[in-house]
Amino acid sequence: MERGTVPVDDLDGRLDLYATIESGQSYLWGRTDDRCYAGERPDGAWYHTTVGGEVLLARQRDGRLEWRASADLADALRGRLRLGDDLRAIEADAPEDDLIRAAYDAHRGLRLVRDPFFPTLVAFICSAQMRVGRIHGMQVALREAFGDPVEFDGDTYHRFPTPEALASTTEAELRDLGLGYRAPYVRRTAELVASGEHTRADVTGLPYEEAREALTGFVGVGEKVADCVLLFSLGYLEAVPLDTWIRTAIEEHFPDCARGNYEDTSRAIRERFGGEYAGYVQTYVFHHLRTGA
DNA sequence: GACCAGGTAGCAA
DNA sequence: TTGCTACATGGT
Predict the structure, then answer these.
(1) pLDDT tens digits, chain A, 293 residues: what are they?
(2) Which one of A25, A53, A254, A262 is at 20 to 30 Å from A35 when CA atoms are compared?
(3) How far is the C-alpha of A171 from the C-alpha of A188, rounded, in Å?
């Protein structure tokens, strides 16, 4: 058992673990009280996930981020939760706007995540026309059905299934987990990755818009899902996924950014959101609107 | 019983 | 290219 603590003061006072994990950007964590996405902050419960074959638990309490794990995962925790991001500078970089300011003020400490590629790809393929709580439920079901179990401190956790494992499933098995019409998308994308026909290597290193185009080569991945993978996994912080909530925000709050198609609207709203960290602005506004601004 | 949810694939024009 | 439409499923 390895463990450690990070004083939130060392993060410039800016960390909200609950908002970071339960704002609909990451579906790789669970809660020891099994209350993920029930709309309430954990009261002493731990968040848990896996890193490689190791188990990592974390919670925020009394001004500290505490973690315990089956190995020394301090660096992994720092990477996954983007603890190195200078939120004060990122906030200062945001354009002056009522809605953006309200979102930053209401959810101070929300950080983007940097999740592993394949699980993020699958989660957002599953996200089509689906509420965040159910997206999370699907990922839990996938882990428990097809992911390798890992024992830690008397409890059993499950890794996210490998591309090979999901490629070996049947569409019917995936439908039985509640994936609906997304089942064949997940299976075919897993096959592409497992066979090496189309992989992360075909995406990383490309300029933003080219990387987004390359991601649509996976099955079930259009421009919006591609933007989510770029933002929440591959570190393209300028990506602004245009989902129903952001489209509504554009209509009602940034109507001059509305264009006829995804590509042009994307360029306009990215510019309006300040460019380099537009994805941060997007995630705050999304979370703010979705939680009832 | 509609309506909606972090949309995309497939097809017609 | 652009513009439909079908697609599963559970909650409100």
Answers:
(1) 999 999 999 999 999 999 999 999 999 999 999 999 999 999 999 999 999 999 999 999 999 999 999 999 999 999 999 999 999 999 999 999 999 999 999 999 999 999 999 999 999 999 999 999 999 999 999 999 999 999 999 999 999 999 999 999 999 999 999 999 999 999 999 999 999 999 999 999 999 999 999 999 999 999 999 999 999 999 999 999 999 999 999 999 999 999 999 999 999 999 999 999 999 999 999 999 999 87
(2) A53
(3) 9
Rounded distance, CA A271 to CA A293, Å? 23
Q: Does at least one atom of strand C sit less than 7 Å from the CB of A181?
A: yes
Cβ-based contacts (< 7 Å) between A 115-134 and strand C: 129-131, 134
A244 Cβ nearer than 7 Å to chain C strand: no
pTM above 0.90, yes or no: yes
Nucleotide nearest to A227 (CA to C1'): B6
Task: Say if strands A155-158 and A149-152 run parallel, antiparallel, or are unpaired.
Answer: antiparallel
Distance of CA A119 to the CA centre of its chain: 10
Map tokens 């890193």 to a residue.
Answer: A51
Known catalytic residue at A196: no
Pick the closest to residue A114 from A49, A61, A169 (CA basis).
Answer: A49
Which 79-138 positions of A have CB less than 7 A from strand B?
Answer: 127-132, 135
A5: left (phi over 0), alpha (psi -120 to 50) or beta: beta
